[in-house]
């Protein structure tokens, strides 16, 4: 079973969208108000005046927002404040979780959580014992509940989530390294296979072409003596076989090992430049094709070799196809260097005689090779008929992609890695965000229930050895405030005081008899009675009553 924390983690300030601060302030204020209302409903909201509560709540909210820039200080400040204002427990839990999750150093995180857990004990002792005159045992118990709920539990959960974040990050790096190693091994395997193919082609095809060139040379010498009018055709045959051999060597250089590549990267200084393209145009003109040549922009001498090779191949392949299928048509070759790219256009008009469909001169692999070459460079190739003829248009970027690979190529092929699965799409991210929001709400609700139960159990104990001092309980307080200090009504104490209590003040609507076990030297029970008129404390009376009737 794999533990996957769904609660959200804070992002760095640079990654936070504008307006996020306002949203967090509103959400934090709602959390603070809901916590206060829940504690107030059971008489555990404290004894502060409304203005003091507002000031302390605003301070707690500011500390929670400061966690992005000063997480440690924000956690320590809220941990100290929660001992005075228990309503800030849920905000403290949020800060404890996010701070411990973001902390990278284990020792510092552990020391921070220990210090933050001790602060509620200290401030509760100061508030209840020294200020309100309560029992130190009661103060320590209440501070312990606040420390566990607001600091330790969310801090430990955040620590576990942070450790898993580190583990997932390490797994991502290992997966990326493994996929890079796999691609490297595949590339090396392809290079070995290409070298084998190159060797086979050189041994078989190269030998045949050499024989053709040799016999064409002999035929040229024989025709020079016997049929001089056919010597030019024999010479063209010898040159064609020689050119085929040269081009074969170039292709074999592309297929061969990288260490001795004579193909794509092993170019002359003129390959793909204006002089090189003009030479191709002149060859076509010499063969009887009317070619118009236009060059716009600077020369390509400073462009990377792969682009210059592609420019050469686009023009060469286009002119070759024109010689085969559109002989006699008007041809226009245009090369233009644009900002960040090179555009090559080879346009031919309609031939005077339609080409024979079954010539058998081409297999279509030339254009397929062009498409692949242009795609490798992250360029665009458009081939097809136009209203006045046929056109080949290629747009080649002069700089490689910023990420070092083709932009239309994913990091890993579908089904061959887990990086695309880990990244997910917009729908997956939305589901994760919804799951995080629901998990955060449920986590805070669970902590709130634990807080209510813990403080309720502590409240059942005896906060004071005797009646609380006037600084803690005094006339004018509400019944809920009195209950939060002295505890709820005890039916046993009420029964013991029945018929023996002093006369109640006029207008009294209800009285509270909290639990007590203090005895006099003669074994009489001390009883403190709190009388209220319409929910407001009007009188505090202490008297004794016998334990038995």
Descriptive notes:
The protein is 56% helix and 11% strand. The N terminus is likely disordered. The chain contains 14 helices and eight strands. Helix 2 runs antiparallel to helix 3 and helix 3 runs parallel beside helix 5. Strand 1, helix 9 and strand 2 form a beta-alpha-beta unit. The protein starts with 19 loop residues before the first helix and ends with a strand. It is rod-shaped, with a radius of gyration of 44 Å. Strands 1-2-3-5-4 form a five-stranded mixed β-sheet, covered by helices on one side. A three-stranded antiparallel β-sheet has the order 6-7-8. The chain is α+β, with helices and mostly antiparallel strands and 549 residues long. It folds into three domains: 208 residues, no CATH class; 132 residues, 2-Layer Sandwich (Heat Shock Protein 90); 68 residues, no CATH class.
Can you describe this structure in just a few lines?
This protein has 549 residues and is α+β, with helices and mostly antiparallel strands.
Give the CA-CA distance, first to last residue: 64 Å
Number of helices: 14
Lateral arrangement of strands in the main beta sheet: 1-2-3-5-4
- Tell me how many strands there are: 8
How large is the radius of gyration?
44 Å
Summarize the helix and strand pattern as letters.
Answer: HHHHHHHHEHEEHEEHHHHEEE
Helix content: 55-70%
Shape estimate: rod-shaped
Mean pLDDT: 79
Overall number of domains: 3
Largest sheet geometry: 5 strands, mixed
Structural class: alpha+beta
β-strand percent reads 5-15%
Q: Uncertain spans, ≥5 residues at pLDDT below 50?
A: 1-6, 258-266, 357-361, 404-423
Q: What does the oligomeric state look like here?
A: single chain
């Amino acid at each position: 079973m794999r533990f996957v924390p769904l609660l959200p983690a804070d992002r760095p300030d640079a990654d936070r969208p504008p307006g996020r601060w306002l949203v967090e302030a509103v959400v934090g204020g709602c959390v603070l108000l809901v916590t206060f209302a829940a504690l107030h409903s059971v008489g555990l909201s404290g004894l502060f005046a409304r203005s003091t509560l507002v000031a302390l709540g605003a301070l707690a909210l500011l500390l929670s927002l400061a966690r992005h820039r000063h997480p440690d200080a924000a956690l320590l400040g809220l941990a100290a404040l929660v001992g005075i204002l228990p309503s800030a427990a849920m905000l403290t839990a949020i800060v404890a979780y996010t701070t411990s999750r973001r902390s990278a150093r284990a020792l510092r995180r552990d020391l921070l959580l220990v210090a933050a857990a001790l602060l509620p004990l200290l401030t509760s002792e100061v508030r209840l014992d020294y200020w309100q005159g309560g029992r130190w045992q009661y103060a320590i118990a209440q501070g312990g509940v606040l420390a566990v709920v607001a600091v330790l539990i969310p801090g430990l959960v955040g620590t576990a989530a942070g450790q898993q974040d580190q583990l997932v990050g390490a797994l991502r790096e290992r997966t990326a390294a493994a996929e890079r190693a796999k691609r490297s091994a595949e590339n090396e395997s392809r290079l070995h296979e290409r070298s084998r193919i190159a060797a086979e082609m050189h041994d078989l095809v190269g030998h045949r072409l050499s024989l053709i060139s040799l016999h064409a040379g002999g035929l040229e010498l024989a025709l020079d003596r016997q049929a001089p009018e056919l010597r030019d055709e024999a010479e063209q045959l010898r040159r064609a076989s020689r050119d085929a051999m040269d081009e074969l060597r170039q292709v074999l250089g592309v297929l061969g090992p990288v260490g001795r590549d004579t193909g794509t990267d092993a170019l002359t200084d003129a390959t793909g430049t204006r002089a090189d393209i003009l030479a191709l145009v002149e060859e076509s003109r010499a063969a009887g094709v009317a070619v118009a040549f236009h060059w716009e922009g600077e020369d390509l001498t400073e462009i990377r070799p792969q682009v210059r090779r592609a420019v050469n191949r686009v023009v060469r392949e286009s002119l070759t196809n024109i010689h085969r299928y559109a002989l006699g048509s008007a041809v226009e070759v245009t090369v233009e260097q644009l900002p960040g790219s090179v555009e090559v256009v080879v346009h031919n008009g309609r031939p005077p005689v339609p080409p024979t469909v079954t010539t058998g001169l081409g297999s279509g692999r030339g254009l397929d090779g062009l498409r692949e070459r242009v795609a490798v460079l992250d360029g665009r190739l458009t081939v097809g008929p136009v209203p006045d003829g046929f056109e080949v248009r290629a747009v080649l970027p002069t700089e490689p992609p910023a990420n070092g690979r083709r932009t239309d190529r994913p990091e890993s092929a579908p089904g061959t890695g887990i990086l695309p699965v880990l990244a997910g799409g917009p729908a997956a991210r939305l589901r994760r965000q919804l799951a995080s929001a629901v998990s955060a709400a449920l986590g805070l609700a669970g902590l709130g229930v634990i807080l209510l139960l813990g403080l309720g159990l502590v409240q059942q104990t005896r906060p004071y050895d005797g009646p609380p001092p006037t600084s803690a309980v005094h006339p004018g307080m509400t019944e809920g405030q009195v209950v939060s200090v002295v505890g709820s009504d005890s039916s046993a104490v009420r029964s013991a005081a029945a018929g023996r209590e002093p006369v109640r003040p006029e207008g009294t609507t209800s009285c509270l008899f909290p639990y007590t076990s203090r005895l006099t030297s003669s074994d009489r029970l001390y009883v403190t009675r709190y009388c209220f008129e319409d929910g407001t404390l009007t009188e505090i009376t202490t008297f004794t009553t016998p334990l038995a009737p």
